[in-house]
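Supplementary Note 3. Input sequence used for the single-chain structure prediction.
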Amino acid sequence: VGTANALVGGWGNLGGGVTQLIMGSVLFPLFKLGMSAEMAWRTVCIVPAFVGVAVGLTILKISDDAPKGNYGEMKKNGTMAEVSAAASFRAGAMNFNTWLLFVQYACCFGVELTMNNAAALYFREKFLLTTETAAAIASLFGWMNLFARGVGGFISDKANARMGMRGRLWWQTICLVCEGVMVLIFAHSNSLGAAIVLMVIFSSFVQAAEGSSYGIVPYVNPPATGSIAGIVGAGGNTGAVAFGLGFRQLPYYDAFILMGSCIIASGVLSLFICIKGHAGLVTGQDSEEAIAAWKKLGGSAPAATTLQVPEPDEDAAAEIEEDKA
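The predicted structure, written as discrete structure tokens, is reproduced below.
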């Protein structure tokens, strides 16, 4: 689950780095030949908008809703339960673990969105680079999605196979703490070369934490996974707004220190994530079913032909059905 979510999300986020590079270092210089720099930048923004609409329409036309088919067909065939969106959202929103992951995702994906917006300007102003050069350097942050988020999800799965949920939570904590520490070190860098290297390492932990987060999400409350995934994902956008305000109101150094401190603090929240049937970071025990499941994954069991997700919590599923009724 962690690897699949991380690979898809990581390659999706890779668009951030590709956009930085193409818009800032390729299209912007071309458009600037026939108009002012300000007008050229505004005009360039039309390109990703057009590409986004075209890709969205293509996906709507040719893709399925899920690995097993479209939701309408699955509900009709009885392979997917009829659960109201309101009941699912209530179940997800009332789970405390959802909001802890919301904050942690704000401190990884929110950081990525913030850096996508601020990195080019930071390098241009801090090291007196041209817009084209600064954009090319800043694009490295997004390019780490090529592998780092997938690696984060993969290691989360491997940790789960050896230690169960406790393994996933430890890896999540390590990623967030290392990410925060790298931000603090990056803030003190006055060398362009060192800043680039530090940003690449910092970005790798950002993406790994994102992959790790969505290795945990499907276990929180399986019948309400869609709603929980949406709430946690919204944490990323919320974090981007919050950190963006910090960069807008504070000097770069202070903004990076504040961001790094918040990230490290978010790692501590893993102590309070307690998922029913699974061990916590330092407390609790896995249920017999959970132990059997992760030991099977850690052994030589044959590969599944379809994406495997945690078995639904019967009590949680019953609650959703009661709310629906």
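The two ends are 31 Å apart (CA to CA). Residues 126 and 190 are 8 Å apart (CA to CA).
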